[in-house]
Design goal:
Layout: H1 40-47, H2 54-57, E1 63-67, H3 73-80, E2 84-89, H4 92-104, E3 111-114, E4 127-133, H5 142-153, E5 155-166, H6 171-175, E6 177-180, E7 183-185, E8 196-197, H7 203-210, E9 216-225, E10 230-239
Parallel strand pairs: 1-2, 1-4, 2-3, 4-5
Antiparallel strand pairs: 5-10, 6-7, 7-8, 9-10
């Protein structure tokens, strides 16, 4: 990772969606700030042997890359627990979103570079841990496997990846139209409407796809039911 902002600031996004500070979270639903709390499931699998073997096998200061660092919500956990933290985001606006929110919360922002699922600004085997929370499905079709290959590339042998994606009972997946394997059309509204997503058909499908690039894969499941929506997530714990 070579710097907070790379020289080529015009690289932008490789997909047709344009993420910005304005559309990164829905202010119409009364949210004042972007999500600023760590993913609870991620904290558990990194903190206790009740949830995964990672705490016993990842020596600190572990070097971690979060793909799609967003508002720095998970970076808070890493910064507070002695990790060497690096992040990637799609464009300058989203890099600034993370920097500004972490600064607002009283943290010194980590090094963040522009990159995406298919193009990470990192050397081979550079990281002990890669974290991707709800970013992998923004690659679809053949790009889904290329993204997983890129994730694996930057992790050292014996290192880990923690990859979360919506499960089949997630409201957005249930609303989506499946066109073919790993190619779904979004129909849950918002600026993603009509875009292609790489949702996995089943937990087994998710695991099988990951096992092409990692030696061990375990799939965890979280489901949240609210009055208006249901959220389901599959979180993969992968060892290279």
């Amino acid at each position: 990772m070579s710097g907070l902002l790379p020289q080529n600031l015009q690289r932008g996004i490789l997909s047709s969606m344009t993420w910005s500070q304005e559309n990164s979270f829905d202010r119409s639903l009364l949210s004042q700030f972007p999500p600023s709390w760590p993913n609870e499931m991620l904290v558990k699998v990194l903190s206790s042997l009740n949830y995964s073997a990672i705490p016993a096998n990842l020596s600190k200061p572990a070097k971690v890359l979060e793909v799609g660092i967003f508002s720095g919500n998970n970076a808070r956990f890493f910064l507070e627990n002695g990790y060497k933290v690096f992040g990637s985001e799609l464009n300058v606006e989203m890099v600034e979103l993370g920097i500004n929110n972490l600064t607002r919360l009283g943290y010194t922002p980590p090094q963040i570079e522009i990159g995406d699922n298919l193009n990470l600004s990192a050397s081979d085997s550079e990281f002990d841990l890669l974290v991707s929370i709800n970013t992998i499905h923004y690659s679809s079709g053949k790009n889904s496997e290329l993204a997983l290959k890129e994730f694996s590339r930057v992790i050292r042998k014996g290192g880990y990846a923690v990859i979360e994606t919506p499960g089949s009972d997630h409201f957005a997946v249930r609303a989506a139209k499946r066109k073919e394997e790993l190619s779904w059309e979004w129909h849950a509204g918002g600026f993603r409407e009509g875009q292609s997503f790489g949702f996995f058909d089943t937990r087994e499908h998710f695991q099988e796809s990951l096992l092409k690039h990692f030696s061990e894969v375990n799939i965890c499941r979280r489901i949240e039911e609210y009055p208006e929506i249901t959220l389901e997530f599959w979180m993969a714990i992968c060892r290279k």
